[in-house]
Amino acid sequence: MRALPSFSALAILVSGLIGAVPAWAEQGAAGRISYEWVEEGAALSTPGLADPSYVDRLGGTESERAFPLSQDARSQAVFWHSAPGTIPRGIASYGPFRVIDSGRAALVDATDSRSPEQFAALLRDYPNVSELEMIECPGTEDDLANLRLGRMIRARGISTHVPAGGSVRSGAVELFLAGRLRYADPGSEFAVHAWLDDTGRTPRDYAPNSPENLRYLNYYQQMGMNLQEARAFYAMTNAVPFESARWFGADEMARWVRLDDAPRWPATRLTVLQR
């Protein structure tokens, strides 16, 4: 299970923040300090085509799959603050989802075991929703339900969009990947780390071809990656221990998956619905 909270103080983020709450159900606070790894001299690969040599530079090869980042990489870490995205009040709520208008919904909280049914109810009542705005997305409390939700998004042909200030963390990244089209505005942020199951095990505690690991590789391929891309992306996420996170922006996400041009929604449509 994967979820990453938000934090308003640097000291909290640095001092073992996640261990104080259940491993798969962290809850966030209002402000956000983001943690980003900065790689010196890293060349951009073709958008949407994961570069295995880039995984090597992150401190873990594709075959090693889940080795932590090297101390050299950690020494290059910098902190940056991202202003939170506007949370829409919307016209209806379904668990962590809010309906913005007849064509758009927003994800504004962690998903859990009830989320697939809640999303199905949303689509039943608002069948023309074609885009999911990902605004405040800390992760999931139920990985299996979260992957089922991602498949629902993909099967319905819904696009995913992270606006400026939007934060997609941990298990929510799987939902972003599910978009038929994927939009990530400048100023959006992502965070990844290795998962931890309810027995306290991580990906490294299972064989590479175990069901526990293959379910993610299979999912990434269902979301449009080839096997090489899926393995490289999975290795990158598992190169960071569960207790930490690797933060990055839209440019970095474009190293791993193909991003589309942002949609041209009227600028006033979100601001008039803010809480």
Largest sheet: 6 strands, mixed
Which regions are unreliable across 5 or more consecutive residues at pLDDT < 50? 6-81, 267-275
Q: What is the typical, i.e. mean, pLDDT? A: 74
Q: What's the count of strands? A: 12
**Helix fraction by DSSP (H/I, runs of at least 4):** 25-40%
Seen as an oligomer or otherwise, the chain set is single chain
Which structural class do you get from the secondary structure elements? alpha/beta
Report the C-alpha radius of gyration, rounded: 17 Å
Number of helices: 10
Q: Per DSSP, what share of the residues sits in E-state strands of 2 or more residues?
A: 15-25%
Q: Reading side by side through the largest sheet, how are the strands ordered? A: 3-4-5-6-8-10
Large-scale geometry: globular
Distance between the termini: 30 Å
The ordered string of helix (H) and strand (E) elements is: HEHHEEEEHEEHEEHEEHHEHH
